[in-house]
Amino acid sequence: MKIRPLGDRVVIKKLEAEETTKSGIVLPGSAKEKPQEAEVVAVGIGGTVDGKEVKMEVKVGDKVLFSKYAGNEVKIDAQEYTILKQDDILAIIE
Amino acid sequence: MKIRPLGDRVVIKKLEAEETTKSGIVLPGSAKEKPQEAEVVAVGIGGTVDGKEVKMEVKVGDKVLFSKYAGNEVKIDAQEYTILKQDDILAIIE
Amino acid sequence: MKIRPLGDRVVIKKLEAEETTKSGIVLPGSAKEKPQEAEVVAVGIGGTVDGKEVKMEVKVGDKVLFSKYAGNEVKIDAQEYTILKQDDILAIIE
Amino acid sequence: MKIRPLGDRVVIKKLEAEETTKSGIVLPGSAKEKPQEAEVVAVGIGGTVDGKEVKMEVKVGDKVLFSKYAGNEVKIDAQEYTILKQDDILAIIE
Amino acid sequence: MKIRPLGDRVVIKKLEAEETTKSGIVLPGSAKEKPQEAEVVAVGIGGTVDGKEVKMEVKVGDKVLFSKYAGNEVKIDAQEYTILKQDDILAIIE
Amino acid sequence: MKIRPLGDRVVIKKLEAEETTKSGIVLPGSAKEKPQEAEVVAVGIGGTVDGKEVKMEVKVGDKVLFSKYAGNEVKIDAQEYTILKQDDILAIIE
Amino acid sequence: MKIRPLGDRVVIKKLEAEETTKSGIVLPGSAKEKPQEAEVVAVGIGGTVDGKEVKMEVKVGDKVLFSKYAGNEVKIDAQEYTILKQDDILAIIE
């Protein structure tokens, strides 16, 4: 199944990273704060959105930071995604 | 009866899918989360809406994801529909 | 008495339909959900409203669906009407 | 004393109508719902208001319907008036 | 001391009128409702305010009606004034 | 240390005036209402702010009146300042 | 790891300063009010943001004052950063 977001929307998949504490213990993703890091899986075409011209700055595969409470969560083929406006993406991690 | 949505509005019919659990049990739609998937049944002509030019991106028959709480629910000929603004449609599923 | 709505406003009269249940019993309008269907009885001339150009899409006699909580209810000559902005009309029923 | 409303404002005087019930009893205005009908007593000159061009559509003497909670009530020479924006006037009664 | 209001602001001084009741008793201003009548004591130069062109319609000495809760109260040389936007002035009393 | 406010922001220092009551007692600033009078200590360059052209009307050294709750308080070198938008300055005292 | 903020966003790192009280005691940063001073570590390219042209005024290395509650806090490589819109930066400290 393929998702094509409308307008300036972006589909992202949250990344859950393992983390090693100072004492060497590995904390799985679920034991930490809600992640804010994600990978872009689909990007709208931008254009005129709400009467304003929007140019898409992110592309599929980018690692991004996003506002924790932004967007809509959807589940497709048992995988959770978040669909949000590009403006809710804070930064690209390079 | 035919519905012609005004401006940038779209009429959708929610899709309730059967789902097979890992153990093989089939869950009917009502036992699951409120669906966010729908089929487009009518599309407004767009044009100038609230002083802004809107181009319709969805067409009748498209499968779409939409914001759970968006739009107005109406019942026509015993069938429930949701009428929402195209901007409340998150993505097209292809 | 004649009502001439200002700007992009529309005057509608709610329709209360009789409905036949599967067992054949007729339910009068008052036993059902609040109706959302109405007939247009007067239409403003549109033009520049709040600095934006509005073209009227509905005409007197149209059957329309409208947002349940939209507009102002007024009683004129013992008949109840709702005066709302055209943008609160969701769709025309044909 | 003369009131000259600024911009797109309009000064109206609420009308309290006597009403005859089916049994023939006359109800004075105060025993009924808050009136929404009024007569226009002064009209601003319109022009550029909040950066938008406003053309005045009502004139002194018009009978109008207005939003019940709109505007500011003022008392001048023991007479109560409401000063509201023309956009809060719903319709002209002809 | 002289006050020069910025942009489309206006400085007004509330007027407290004596009022004679029907029985002839004079009520000083403080025993009545909060006054909404004022005299203009200083007027900004208007111009571009918040990106919009504003033309000042009131002038020093005008008697005006204003929204009861609008503006900021300031005390200068033991005299109370209200500084508000011209748009919060409802009407000029002539 | 020098503060350079961004855009249409202004840095002000509140003035606390001594006040002599009618009986001749001097009230230090802290025993009175929160002051609303201030001196401008730094002014942004204006220009395009939030898509609108802003021309700075105040200059360093101006005595101004400002909205009591406007702006952000900051402490620099043990001195308290308020940084606010020029639009939150009500008037210049001359 | 490198962060590239989108649009008119800026990444800052809060500065915690030691402070010497009058009695000569050194207060570490955590015993004081939440700091509002920060250093800019990354700057977006600006351009058209929400339909408005934004020119970036801050640059990497600038010491800035920012609104205490603005922006999103993120932790990258065990270091906390705040990502905010340039408009939430109040002033540059020189």
Q: Strand order of the main beta sheet of chain A, please?
A: 9-10-2-5-8-11
The largest sheet of chain A is: 6 strands, antiparallel
CATH topology of chain A: 10 Kd Chaperonin, Protein Cpn10, Chain O
CATH homologous superfamily annotation of chain A: GroES chaperonin
- CATH architect. name of chain A: Roll
The helix content of chain A, as a percent range, equals under 10%
The quaternary structure here is homoheptamer
Number of strand elements of chain A: 11
Q: What's the helix count of chain A? A: 0
- Most residues in contact, chain pair and counts: A-B, 19 and 19 residues
What does the overall shape of chain A look like? globular
User: How many angstroms separate the termini of chain A?
Assistant: 28 Å
Judged by helices, strands and strand pairing, the structural class of chain A is mainly beta
Mean pLDDT of chain A: 83
Gyration radius of chain A, rounded? 15 Å
GO molecular function (chains A, B, C, D, E, F, G): ATP binding; metal ion binding; protein folding chaperone; protein-folding chaperone binding; unfolded protein binding
InterPro entries (chains A, B, C, D, E, F, G): Chaperonin_GroES, Chaperonin_GroES_sf, Chaprnonin_Cpn10_CS, GroES-like_sf
Protein name (chains A, B, C, D, E, F, G): Co-chaperonin GroES
Organism (chains A, B, C, D, E, F, G): Clostridium coskatii
